[in-house]
Write a structure and sequence with these properties.
mainly alpha
Length: 107
């Protein structure tokens, strides 16, 4: 009986973890750790703070004009181009995947 309960708990935990980490297909190959590193190295938060104030999170508007994972990736590419960051396409995707995970939650 105990073993059944343990397996049931593990199954629920795994199902929750996989649904919490669900990402759109566009982000399937994204390197989340790399995205986090690039966000820190390129001082993305500081730039957003300078644009919108506060902690910078007001720049993320999930209900606004960025309403798909593709648009989100495009916005990161726009920042990459405008700021001449020199990110490779897979790096742009990794940054967008982190933003999706933390702010947008597109499935």
């Amino acid at each position: 009986m105990k073993l059944v309960k343990v397996w049931a708990c593990l199954g629920v935990g795994l199902a929750f973890a996989s649904s919490a980490m669900a990402q759109p297909a566009i982000f399937k190959e994204a390197d989340i750790k790399l995205g986090e590193k690039l966000i820190a190295e390129n001082k993305c938060v500081a730039c957003h703070v300078s644009k919108v104030g506060g902690d910078g999170s007001a720049i993320y508007k999930p209900q606004g004009r960025i309403n798909t994972a593709g648009y989100l990736r495009g916005m990161v590419e726009q920042c990459n181009s405008q700021l001449n960051l020199g990110l490779f396409p897979e790096e742009v995707t990794s940054v967008a995947a982190v933003l999706n995970r933390d702010h947008y939650k597109f499935k």
